[in-house]
Amino acid sequence: MSLPSPNPRPEPPDPKDRPARLTVGVVGAGRVGPALAASLQLAGHRPVAVSGVSDASVRRAAALLPDVPLVPPAEVLARADLVLLTVPDDALPGLVEGFVETGSIRPGQLLAHTSGRYGVKVLDPALRAGALPLALHPAMTFTGTAVDVQRLAGCSFGVTAPEELRLAAEALVIEMGGEPEWIAEEMRPLYHAALALGANHLVTLVAEALDLLREAGVAAPDRMLGPLLGAALDNALRSGDAALTGPVARGDAGTVAAHVTELRKHAPGTVPGYLAMARATADRALAHGLLKPELAEDLLGVLATGAEETR
Fold first, then answer.
1. Residue 265: what pLDDT?
2. Most-buried pick from 7, 133, 149, 305 (CB within 10 A)?
3. What residue ranges of the chain have pLDDT lower than 50?
4. C-alpha to C-alpha distance for 98 and 81, rounded to whole angstroms
5. Cβ-Cβ contacts under 8 Å for 147 (sequence gap 6 or more)
6. Burial (CB count within 10 angstroms: exposed 0-12, middle 13-18, buried 19+), residue 168
């Protein structure tokens, strides 16, 4: 007969049974806001209002934040302790100024935007109105579906906050499953450019590669590219420039010339991007000692000729 453990480990509390610490509102039900609010809900906070205009926004809010009312932006601010401003970068300054002019901001209210480009200075008008400003940018691509909530686990956030709010910002990111990475105010544009270069341009490169493989007669280009690109990304993250391979890094000028010729024939719109990336790859391969200087001259000549013909 087995005896019960003298000190049984208690079951962790269900998030629904924990008292909500903050009421949460979302202004702009794009792909990001509802996912962040849903993550905060799992941590015990309580979404109370969301604003959105398009049919897609309404559907996202209903899917990720069921039973949370859809209201005008000013009403979101009236109901929430923490307001997530998840609107396009260019719309953010005007939105903040509009809230200030209409007296929508309450002193002591946490106002967090998710723009990668901006730090907290864009929230200065709200700060003067008594708001507590945070910049919490998830370094993740979003689909607008429930999978986004899962992807936030381990996701890095670019965080900028006043010194007195750093602990609050860190706590919110951790509660969403993320990892805070502190970015200085003046470094936000560079930080965001790096992410756009790596993620947004990657999608363009992959889409163009898929199109070219289809043109070449490959029946399942995604299946062909998947293992190759996965290995290339893993190698690049582990080894940086040392992971460079291919005809440019080897100095195979003839192969690169053949590439340019075929691209002009089948997909001329891809030529400028190919030449620009090949030149950048050559420069990095040279600097890292992968591309032999004696082979670089012919290669760079091919790239220069290709660029002249593209003009």
1. 96
2. 133
3. 1-20
4. 19
5. none
6. middle
